[in-house]
Amino acid sequence: MTMIKPGKQSFLVLAQDPGVTGPAGERVFATVDVPAERLALGPTGYRVKVVDFDAEAGVLYKAHAYQEDAEGRLEDIFAAKLPPPGSKLRKKAEDQLLANPAFHGQNVYALVMRTLARFEYALGRRVHWGFDGHQLHVAPHAFVDANAFYSREDRALMFGYFKADQEPVKPFVFTSLSHDIIVHETTHALLDGLRAGFMNFSGPDQAAFHEGFSDVVALLSIFSLKEIVELALAQFNDGTKRVAIKSKGKSLIHRRALTASALTDGALMGLAEEFGRALGGMRANALRRSVRMKPSRDLLDSPDFREPHTRGEILAAALMRTFLQIWLRRIEELGTFDDGYYNLVEVAAEGAKVADHLLTMSIRALDYCPPLDLEFGDYLAALLTADAEIAPDDKRYHYRNTVLEVFGSFGIEPPASRTDASGCWLGFSQHASIQYRRTNFESMLRDPEEVFRFIWENRDALGVDERSYTQVVSVRPSLRIGPEGFLLRETICEYVSRANIFGAELKVVCNVDPRPPGVNSNTALTVYGAGTLVFDQYGQLKYHIARQMNDGQWQRKRLEYLVGEPTEDPEIGSAFANLHRMRAHCASCDDTGKRQRTSSSPRAKSAQPVSRPIKGHLGGSA
């Protein structure tokens, strides 16, 4: 029986995926906490519904029913059945566990819920999905393909499985057993709920942000587990001898293994190679490139980084390099043993703390982003502002200075005209004409109508064109807790303005003159303005992070990029499916550029479909 913390339930999950193993060859598992709830079959909770139907094999797998003890706590039978590392029965138990479709269901449920809980903790409120409804459907074995994706239309996460062609035995690989992939896809679903406008066609950074941000959350989520950090440090050497040794019952690691280059080329790079062996390259290439990518201020202008998921790797690279630099700074404060050895467990714990802090910063930054047409520089300003609001004192580890410096080395700079010397958004300058007396702040905490009244009363001060159609798309009260117990109460509101015009009206409406190439006086256009309003606990406007309709420079840049693009948004599920399939295709090509073949559905003894003969595909795993 699993002991749980008040309000939480613990579940056994794979810390990474089946191909990542410990020193004795054992798979690496972890126990993660998720919000406690009564689960129906699936498992199905109030936010996540696991539906294990394989449409390709025509099989509905039998779901595990979780039992409660006398105190209402759920029993995790998978954790109870797994012997400790070093046991002779461990390998057999691992194989049985990974071949059990019910454990696949628990693995996706727990990691989706853990990711949701991390977002809600960071943002200080409940987070909605990007569709009408409360439960996200999750299909652990949706199809046979090296792919996984989020579909808004289906309200679902779809996970594929495929043959690991590069392995001698050619076992099947299940993306529903990869921590990295599950968190990546969950982040797409959460980001869609938080910033639906980021799905729209816009400049190159916005599409890349969805991929890069999802990579960042996935990678930092993994490295916030100290089991993974310890494994990454302990398993690699410096080319002469192992740098992690046992001494007096403690694991020690030499300081020569804790330089930026050693950690990049050793621990992180080695772990990336393990990902590659397990996943056939599906997600490993992104991590490998992000770790290896050398800073350059010219990357964003390079044709090699115009495609969304490769461009998003620049964002991931900047965060991973920031992670390394701050981690090294914290390691320096630890004491050493004889001849420059550090306690490996303490080094790993510092790495997990940095990853957790950066993960919280990265998520909180979403509240300080514009609702539309995001650029990496906007996200950088949001990242710095979010942390400065909750943790004003940054003198010890210099998180924000490091973020600003590292992002700058990749050519990502905060918007100069709208940020201060530290890279944070400029606070809203209170105009003498700003009106608060005609709106009720208590109502503004939750009522879009009241927020719209505030915007309309102050449209001149906010730069909102009264000829456009303006809609408040979200009102989100937040309560956040800083590192020293400091409470920050804010209300985050988004609005979007839209106007249907002809090219001849660009100068009057958008201050664009001359017209961009490809746009004539009769060209039908839809132009946008948008803004994020951040109110403090007293109802005063702190920040107005805007994309104003009459910003001619921005409107021209947007139109020039979009000329020739499709005029209607694609179906969201297909967009993510195709984007991820492209990533898998690129990662699974041989040296000649030919696509490696993926085999059809396997057959397994352990799969038990409901009301069908024994038939299935869960017999083996990488």
Structure explained in plain terms:
The protein has 18 helices and 16 strands. Strands 3, 6, 7, 8 and 9 form a 5-stranded mixed beta sheet that branches. Helix 6 crosses helix 7. It has 622 residues and is of the alpha+beta class. Helix content is 37%, strand content 17%.
Short précis:
The chain has about 625 residues and is α+β, with helices and mostly antiparallel strands. About 35% of the residues lie in helices and about 15% in strands.
What distinguishing features does this structure have?
alpha+beta, disordered C terminus
Describe the secondary-structure layout.
Elements: E1 8-14, E2 29-35, E3 48-50, E4 53-54, E5 59-60, H1 77-81, H2 90-98, H3 101-123, E6 136-144, E7 148-151, E8 156-163, E9 172-174, H4 179-194, H5 204-223, H6 226-234, E10 244-247, E11 250-254, H7 260-279, H8 284-292, H9 308-331, E12 341-343, H10 344-364, H11 376-390, H12 399-409, H13 441-444, H14 448-457, H15 459-462, E13 469-481, E14 487-502, H16 506-510, E15 524-535, E16 541-547, H17 552-562, H18 572-587
